[in-house]
Design a protein that fits this description.
It is a single chain. By secondary structure, this protein is of the alpha/beta class. The protein contains 17 helices and 18 strands. The protein has an eleven-stranded mixed beta sheet with strand order 1-9-18-17-16-15-14-13-10-11-12, sandwiched between helices. Strands 4-3-2-5-6-7-8 form a seven-stranded parallel beta sheet, with helices on both faces. Helix 3 links the parallel strand 2 and strand 3. The chain is elongated.
Length: about 500
């Protein structure tokens, strides 16, 4: 996994690399600038494009000066540089890069406090005003300049982080920050890039490797981690010869009402396609025809309003998921209570089962350790109270996962698995085409199948989130599909898994 660092940890990693590679900080800055330019020239190939680099007077500005010089060396013909001299402070590396640039006779325009901003003719703006060291909202001339740049409606490419944007801690959407079309971030994305409140400021980001010491980064033990494909390849277990359906477990899906059988069918089908040896759906009698018609491989466990379930009903199953389209009546509450009080293995709890848990909070004491709950943001807030922002939500999730000994998958673009030991694992797959009803039911079925096959809860969360998003990517991205339906994603799952296990 790729550790995601705070601004303080990033500085520690930079300093460690400088000390242990015997490299000067100016040379590390040059390395970062080259990584930025390498990505830039592969994506902005018209060398007649007019580019303006806006630089502050700190190290982010130093990066910008080095980038401008390197772009000039790559024969970009129209490069202008504007230095925001809105502070009397400069860094040594900024000054060195400024001298290097002056020797090329490049024209540099200074922007001084209180002045009108110069006319901007560039079609691309490179934002190198302020870096990760910012620790308070923009004000004064910096705030005015950033608002001016945003109003120009140009393509803005930010160096490492959009100026004014915080890499971690709370995001206040009322604060002024650069609205970047692209952010080319050094070494890894910043934590807040992966939260929904980043959307107004970052349309797309790319992390480029600048050679920071990877072993030292891992030694910092950041609780924030980004899941990568190698993590999945290491965890997925290919099927072996001489195995049979019993090898891959028996999963039970407790889901559906007459009017919400679609959720039950999607969840149970996803479970079967993800590889559970046997899948049983506990559904109302009225759903039996639909179940048999759609997926005859799935067995049925019929429930009715007067039925009382006991430990004997649950104990034969290797994994159980509950909640998709289940309903929240007294009957469904009784099923949930029976399950929680008698089933000792981890359970996947979603949708209506989460809503019942939010109302009957005392049931938390019966939730088996290492169970997995999969709330979207509204379900999360119903469970744990309203939150000001996503950063606040993450801190609550850490506390609740540790307190209850469960895994929480907080669903969003980068769905986050919060572990009982307090780690936050961001998934790196998925796309907006998957934003359609039923996708959460599919994820629940995937998780149940993985638990049934013997994966532990953490691996089930890591693999489940990844293959769910990856299957969506494989359907959407090559075909430029605007919508991926859950039923299509389910059928894609075996192929996605096979590619990852190849």
């Amino acid at each position: 996994m790729l550790p995601l660092l705070t601004a303080t940890q990033i500085r520690e990693a930079d300093n460690y690399t400088i000390a242990h590679e015997s490299i000067a900080s100016i040379d590390l800055m040059e390395r970062a600038a080259k990584a930025f330019v390498c990505w830039f020239i592969n994506h902005f190939q018209d060398k007649n494009e007019s580019i303006t680099v806006y630089c502050g007077t700190g190290n982010n500005g130093g990066d910008g000066l080095a980038i401008a010089r390197l772009l000039s060396e790559h024969h970009y013909k129209t490069i202008s540089i504007k230095v925001a001299r809105l502070s009397s402070k400069t860094t040594d590396d900024f000054n060195i890069n400024l001298q290097r640039l002056l020797s090329t006779q490049t024209i540099i325009t200074d922007i001084n406090s209180g002045e009108e901003f110069p006319t901007e003719n560039g079609t691309i703006i490179i934002d190198a005003l302020l870096g990760t060291g910012l620790n308070k909202p923009l004000e004064g001339d910096y705030k005015r300049l950033v608002a001016h740049l945003n109003a120009l409606n140009k393509t803005i490419v930010s160096v490492d982080i959009p100026s004014g944007f915080f890499g971690e801690e709370e995001i206040n959407i009322e604060n002024e920050a650069i609205n970047a079309a692209i952010v080319i971030s050094f070494q890894q994305p910043k934590i807040n890039f992966l939260l929904p409140e980043a959307a107004p400021y970052i349309n797309y980001w790319k992390a480029v490797n600048i050679g920071i010491d990877a072993a030292f980064i891992r030694s910092l033990n950041s609780p924030y981690q980004l899941i990568e494909e190698t993590d999945i390849r290491e965890r997925l277990k290919p099927r072996q010869r001489f195995t049979h359906k019993g090898t891959y477990g028996h999963a039970l899906i407790i889901a559906g009402q007459p009017e919400t059988m679609g959720a039950a069918l999607l969840c149970a089908s996803a479970c079967a396609y993800t590889g559970a040896g046997l899948t049983t759906a506990c559904v109302p009698q009225s759903g039996l025809i639909a179940l048999n018609t759609l997926q005859p491989e799935i067995m049925a466990m019929i429930r009715n309003d007067k039925q009382i379930f006991s430990e004997n009903d649950w104990k034969k199953f290797d994994a159980i998921a509950i909640g998709s389209g289940l309903g929240q009546s007294e009957q469904e509450l009784n099923i949930l209570v029976s399950l929680l009080k008698t089933y000792q293995k981890p359970i996947v709890i979603d949708a209506d089962a989460l809503n019942l848990l939010a109302v009957h909070y005392g049931l938390w004491k019966y939730v088996p350790k290492n169970s997995i709950i999969t709330p979207h943001v509204k379900e999360f807030d119903r469970l744990f109270g309203s939150h000001r922002n996503w950063w606040h939500r993450l801190q609550t999730a850490r506390q609740m996962a540790q307190e209850h000994g469960v895994y929480i998958i907080l669903k969003n673009d980068y769905s986050i698995t919060i572990t009982p030991d307090g780690n936050l694992l961001f998934n790196s797959t998925g796309n907006p085409s998957m934003a359609t009803g039923g996708m959460g039911d599919v994820l629940t079925g995937i998780l149940a199948a993985l638990l049934a096959q013997g994966y532990n809860s953490e691996d089930a969360c890591i693999i489940g989130n990844y293959i769910h998003g990856k299957a969506g990517d494989e359907l959407a991205l090559p075909n430029l599909a605007t919508v991926v339906l859950p039923s299509a994603l389910i059928v894609q799952l075996p192929q996605t898994m096979a590619k990852l296990m190849a």
